[in-house]
Amino acid sequence: MKWNGWGYSDSKFLFNKKGQAEFTGKRYRLSGMVLPSLQDWFENTFGASVNHKSPATPALNASAVPPARLNKAFVEDLKATGIPFSHEAEDRVFRAHGHCLHEIFALREGKKFERVPDMVVWPNCHNDVVKIVELACKHNVCLIPYGGGTSVTSALECPPEETRCIVSLDTSQMNRILWIDEKNLVAHVEAGIIGQDLERLLNESGYCTGHEPDSMEFSSLGGWVATRASGMKKNVYGNIEDLVIHIKVVTPRGVIEKSCQGPRMSTGPDIHHFILGSEGTLGVVTEVTMKIRPIPEYQKYGSVVFPNFEAGVACLREVAKQRCAPASIRLMDNEQFQFGHALKPQVSSIFTNFVEGLKKFYITKFKGFDPHQLVVATLLFEGDRERVLQHEKQVYDIAATFGGLAAGEDNGQRGYILTFVIAYLRDLGMDYYVVAESFETSVPWDRVLDLCRNVKERINRECKERGVQFQPLTSCRVTQTYDAGACVYFYFAFNYRGLADPVHTYEQVEHAAREEILANGGSLSHHHGVGKLRKEWMKESISSLGVGMLQSVKDYVDPDNIFGNRNLL
Amino acid sequence: MASKTLYSQRDPMLKRDGFEDILEERRNSSDLKYALRCYAPVLYKGVTPCKANMLKNIVLQSDQLHYVINKVSQESGKAPDIIQEEASVILEEMAHRLQISTVRFFAFALTKAFKTLFQHVCVNEEGIQRLQQAIQEHPVVLLPSHRSYMDFLLMSYILYTYDLALPVIAAGMDFMGMKFVGEMLRMSGAFFIRRSFGGDKLYWAVFSEYVKTMLRNGFAPIEFFLEGTRSRTCKSLTPKLGLLNIVIEPFFKGEVFDVNLVPVSISYERILEESLYARELLGVPKPKESTSGLLKARRILSEDYGSIHVYFGQPVSVRSLAQGKVNRSKYNLFPRHIPRKPMEETQSFVNDTAYRIVRLQEDNMVLKPWVLMASLLLQNLEGLELSVLTEQTVWLRGLALSYAAFLDWPDHAPTAKVVSSSLALHRGLACVSGGRVSLVVGEPLGPVTPEEALFNRAVSVLSCASYRNQVLHVFLRPAMLAVAMHTAASSKKNDVYNCFSFLWDMFSNDFILCPGDTVQDFEEACYLLVKTGAVQMPQQDIVMTDIGQPTLSFFNGLLEPFLQGYQVVCRYFCEEASEGLTEKQYIPAVRSFAVKLILAGNLRCYEVLSSDMQKNALAALLRMDAVTKVKVADQVTLIVNKMAVNSIDNILGGKLPTQKAVLARL
């Protein structure tokens, strides 16, 4: 894994000697391929140049890491339990951050860290966690649970004002499927398991969870629970709160769990909902029982081109209305469509080239779509073959009434690749003076268009006012549909040459964008969570009484603030 | 930021653009060619213009209208189809049918007319450039001042000249009376609204949705008059909020990113309707707009009306104005297509904005030397030596400039020349005989009764006052301070402020005083008077300086007619008003009361005969609860609290300190 960027060390984008972009490694569909149009797109979109590099510092500077403030008594007691731990600088720094722009930027620049965990512990099972939490309470040590480290809300940042010893509780060793119950179609899993491992292991028994957040390669089950995660295929499988049957959480007051696995209960407010989205402020999720499904027999990608964003949104709304959304349906705006196109690998045969040309001609010239207006919806169908084909027809028929044209499986699949490589692309951008980030919201259907337009406009304006010299890239996609609204996902990037403090500028713009979202009827977050990044809006979002309710739970469960990451409240 | 310029203290060195005369080119080239030239304005974000019929369909099919139609149908028991049909009829009656051919016709005809009527039509071209920029970026609302029927034709004419998108204009239904002209106006972009449609939900829904649809889609700039009607007195009228609410709402609901409000100040050197207005104010009802009436107005064509100045102000961004004042997320919890009364927060924001825009209009009104002369003449109704008038006009010019008046004083012309040419242009109002300048009183035919003579004199006083009124906004705050210093019990700052605040409250229907700005206005007045050396403020006192006398007495004289007028109204209520006086009877009754006083030689103030002042005085007394309205059957009756009215009268006359009056009110 990279220490100052996204994902695996062997996988990265780079511009080769010929100036062509390629993606290294062997792990992804794009791996090892040359992407001839990426450079043009990159230079034209951002006004950047492959000749202007902004390289990262090559290695972690250990002197930039503050010394560990160890709690001797705690360390002694911990040693006695035999649970492994470390206070190496690398281990501590690696768990001091998530993947917010400012966090990665600071790592690349080799900035001095203000506060990082003082030590890291690796419990192996639920009981280990119980012991650690007991010791932490006994010695007044601050615990910060750490799963996959993919947070984008500053949730893993150590509060600089924390004077106690901070211990990062890394759940990565708790990664087993403890049992599978085929009669009830549930699996009992340790919460440290990483998404792709969970899926792979279940697949071996012919099952899946179907929970596929974009970060599933690296994020953990416990993290999903703690942030109220959402998966790409939630239309079939549900979001994390729909998937979870039983949760075991270790808190300073003891262990919370329900006494049965009934599929639904009327026993007062669901205590799971105190845990889901608690962002590590109450305790550590150690084990989860979640629903599983047989692996679908058939999977098919698809795509539809619409003349403009308005038509696309209208179509998605209709699909949601008829409740016939495929496992995934996403609408990318024109900017993202072009972005996706820039990732097309080199075409080997003249014939494919010719066919591509014909398609383009058909859509833009024959059907009169404006290439700077058209948008594309990507689809993923799952189920038994016959149903999938039927379902596909139904969706394409609806799309046709909104002027949509079927645009093939390939375009659809490419859309989903973008979401897995986007974080790698951000690292590439940062090598060339481009900073980028994404953020999301959920919003009622009738406000989707207004919100998208106003947020983009606000970003453009704020960038201009703050001295960003190049036109920023603002792009959005409607990425989930619900009965009453949709989830909208934004990408935002700009060339920061000429700016003294690009990260600060970036943060100001993102702040303004969030204000705009809230003013246009969007939520504070659909699935990323609040962390410390969006805390300031919690009162406005859920009322001060609401914050008080959450606070009183926190005060009861964790009176000494052992879980002191200070997220959420 | 726009809000900053709007809310900051007025800068006496206010930077303003220069003017270009658009008639100059017309005088040197073919009018026909001009009318037929290629016209291709840029639109908002490059939208294509929308055909009038398509626009109607969008409105009729909108969720907003459907909701109201269903609601009205439920309430009235009529079928939705019938209501829908009614809506369609309303829309038909309302909608504009902008046609470029009609615009070209007007371009041709107006050029001819303008060239005969006016010496110059001057426009600030930088303002036009700003407007052009604004139109491309955001929906634009044009908010011109309203002094003449000419205003909106003039606006469209200018925009056509500069190849800008033609506005759609909210016009009063009374124009529709003029069959042919009404349709012509409709085809040049006017849409017609009924003057009153209080409870008619359907009408309101059609109307507001029509305006919002045009705004949201950016098909054309929307133009309307904040003042609601032509100001007959040449003072700005307190703004009406209905339409402003409608055009601002799409911003709050997130339907547009921003809305730009562009104040436009149209200043006429001589107003076409000059004496018409005076008569109207004196109670001769305004002639119903009719085509033949307009044709009679042709004789106007033989006169010289000087020049017109049109100043396009800085576009004001509603978004920046609302920053921190209105929480837009409050609109999140209610479906946007259901009509709702604006929230309190919004209401006060819109009210505030309206006042500020009108003040911006005032700021950029161009004043001619005659305006200063009229102010002086009105303080000397018996007449002035020409040399004295000239000398005082020069003095007043200096004063006006130091108060940031937008004065159009001819460069390099000797003062005597300026004065004499002003007198020449306004020879209908003032004349020089034997070296003395005095007001002209229209010569009646045949023998006259004393009432008729008084009436004729009043016409010329009110006409003259309409010029003085143009400068009032420049001097208003210092003048109120001067009066307050005069009437206050002591020179203590507190006492003076109490007096000032009383006057401020009293006159807030007559002048544009932004709600809640009393303290700010007081401070501005102090600052200006101190700056110009008329007043000094040692410790907690406000006192006149050695050289302050002329300024302060001019200011006292400037407001004297208003003080007197209001006092007459008070006296009427105390001495004459009968039990069961209805609102309708009020104006004629006050008028005859004042006539009696003047004829008896007890009153020399003619301005109280103006129905405008009478209405404003009543509004003030109502606001102060000295008079209350009671609705009995179909009649609105005025109930007078004589004690309270009497004490207000006494304060205005300087006989009672302000503090007591406040008590009396309680």
What can you tell me about this protein's structure?
The complex is a heterodimer of chains A (569) and B (666). With 569 residues, chain A is α+β, with helices and mostly antiparallel strands. Chain A is 37% helix and 20% strand. Chain A has 18 helices and 21 strands. In chain A, the strands form 5 sheets. A 7-stranded antiparallel beta sheet of chain A has the order 18-15-17-16-20-21-19, with helices on both faces. A 5-stranded antiparallel beta sheet of chain A has the order 8-9-13-11-12. A 4-stranded mixed beta sheet of chain A has the order 4-5-7-6, covered by helices on one side. In chain A, a hairpin with a 5-residue loop joins strand 1 and strand 2. The longest helix of chain A has 22 residues. The radius of gyration of chain A is 24 Å and the shape is globular. The N terminus and C terminus of chain B are likely disordered. Helix content of chain B is 53%, strand content 10%. With 666 residues, chain B is α/β, with parallel strands linked by helices. Chain B is globular, with a radius of gyration of 26 Å. Chain B starts with a helix and ends with a helix. In chain B, a hairpin with a 2-residue loop joins strand 11 and strand 12. In chain B, strands 1, 2, 3, 4, 5, 6, 7, 8 and 9 form a 9-stranded mixed beta sheet that branches. In chain B, strands 10-12-11 form a 3-stranded antiparallel beta sheet.
Describe the structure in brief:
Chain B: Keywords: Acyltransferase, Membrane, Transferase. The complex is a heterodimer of chains A (569) and B (666). Chain A is of the alpha+beta class and 569 residues long.
